[in-house]
Design a protein that fits this description.
Blueprint: H1 4-9, H2 11-21, H3 27-60, H4 66-100, E1 121-126, H5 139-145, E2 149-150, H6 151-157, E3 164-165, H7 168-186, E4 190-191, E5 197-199, H8 200-205, E6 218-219, E7 224-226, H9 231-235, E8 242-244, E9 250-259, E10 278-288, H10 293-310, E11 315-319, E12 331-339, E13 344-353, H11 357-362, E14 365-367, E15 374-376, E16 378-386, H12 387-397, E17 405-406, H13 412-415, E18 419-420
Helix pairs in contact: 3-4, 5-12
């Protein structure tokens, strides 16, 4: 989280960031709390000095007389004043930190300015969209016809937006996970297996809290959260650690199930696999030196692209504008797959540079060898990639006139099947 000094020194920059991201912050209240905070800190420091001085004088006195007794009373008074002021300061700092926690990360200067997704910029397109001479069924229809997707039974077991993958559908899920993990490992990412439940500190560190708490599944008794993405546990692997500079960069990949209430998306994309409460994803996370983080962002996007290129699926890369950036990101690229059955571009990966925003909240530093001081690392993450929309694209792009679906060549060794009939 931003320190009080950083907020004071960069107030106009932070106000501009809030304006660009559409975040509302009570700046007047923040300034008032900061002034009160500094006043109480000065008061406490002053009383402690006075208390120390009078305690030293008491220690030097050997005879108990009226003057000494007055000095002892005064020392106790200082102690009481310090205790009362510290209690008030604690409450002030809590309110101050709650407001500071709502200030988003600052967009990078290269990010296009815009209010919403209409301001996003397509920066790359890969592979032309193939025209078919037959009507392509949407994935939910072809999935049910092939008996690989079962929405009613998922709803019976849990509720809406919890599908069941059956037979070759389950094999496709498992094969995609193994294929992606192996691909990323070959490219220098270390595989980790992490918990799907995290504590409140972990969620705060990566920026999901406090803003997105309503979107998360929460266990009240333990105060744990089901993870919305492996970004949360993987980034928190190094929370409150100092990483030797020569160990940077660190690359990790992880498969996890992901859980989201989608509280802010009511009524959107209600059919099929487009928007789910539980889904699978392979994640990529980087801890890097600040000097290289933006070149690392470009190679992170390329790593996610490798998955889609290997599967020979048409996609495009979109740079998000300021108004569409997440709370924690400084810069982000979305990768979108084409789904011909529903005639939509579907986001399948978001690759973000958070600069020091997450590291500051999580206390993740590295020690500069040249000067011996510690600095915050830069963190990055990207989907490598999310499965539901990837499966949508495969079922619709690889659909055949006879109603079967071919398995992409690169996947066949992982699924054990060539075609789903």
């Amino acid at each position: 989280m931003y320190s009080a000094k950083f907020v004071r020194d960069n107030l106009e920059l932070l106000k501009k960031a809030c304006e660009l991201k559409g975040a509302k912050v009570n700046w007047e209240e923040l300034e008032k709390l900061d002034n009160e905070r500094r006043r109480f800190i000065s008061f406490i420091e002053e009383r402690r000095k006075w208390q120390k001085d009078i305690t030293s004088k008491i220690a030097e006195r050997k005879d108990m007389n009226e003057t000494l007794q007055d000095m002892i009373k005064q020392a106790r008074k200082y102690s009481d004043e310090i205790r009362e002021a510290e209690a008030k300061l604690k409450e002030i700092e809590k309110n101050y930190e709650n407001i500071v926690a709502s200030i988003p990360n600052i967009p990078h200067p290269s990010v296009p300015v815009g209010k919403d997704s209409s301001g996003n910029v397509v920066v790359k397109e890969w592979r032309e969209i193939e025209k078919k001479d037959f009507d392509i069924l949407p994935h939910w229809e072809i999935g049910e016809k092939l008996d690989i997707l079962d929405f009613p039974r998922g709803a019976k077991i849990t509720g809406s937006f919890f599908p069941v993958f059956k037979g070759n559908g389950a094999a496709l899920v498992r094969g995609l996970i193994n294929f992606m993990i192996e691909l990323h490992k070959k490219n220098g990412f270390k595989e980790v297996w992490v918990p799907a439940l995290v504590n409140r500190d972990s969620m705060f560190s990566t920026g999901q809290l406090p803003k997105l708490e309503k979107d998360m599944y929460h266990l009240d008794e333990e105060d744990y959260f089901l993870i919305p993405t492996a970004e949360v546990p993987v980034t928190n692997l190094h929370r409150d650690e100092v990483i030797p500079e020569d160990k940077l960069p660190l690359y990790y990949t992880a498969y996890t199930p992901c859980f989201r209430r989608e509280a802010g998306a009511y009524g959107k994309d209600t059919k099929g696999l487009i928007r789910l409460h539980q889904f699978d994803k392979v994640e990529l996370v980087k801890f890097v030196h600040p000097d290289t983080s933006y070149s690392e962002l470009e190679t992170l996007v390329e790593e996610a692209e490798r998955v889609l290129q290997a599967l020979n699926l048409p996609y495009r890369v979109v740079m998000l504008c300021t108004g569409d950036l997440s709370f924690a990101a400084s810069k982000c690229y979305d990768i979108e797959l084409w789904a011909p059955g529903i005639k939509k571009w579907l986001e399948v990966s978001s690759c973000s540079n958070f600069e020091a925003f997450q590291a500051r909240r999580a206390g993740i530093r590295f020690r500069d060898k040249k000067h011996g001081r510690t600095e915050y690392v830069h963190t990055l993450n990207g989907s490598g990639v999310a499965l539901p929309r990837l499966i949508i694209s495969i079922l619709e792009n690889y659909q055949q006139p006879d109603g079967s679906v071919l398995i992409p060549d690169v996947l066949r060794q992982y699924t054990g099947i060539d075609v789903i009939k």
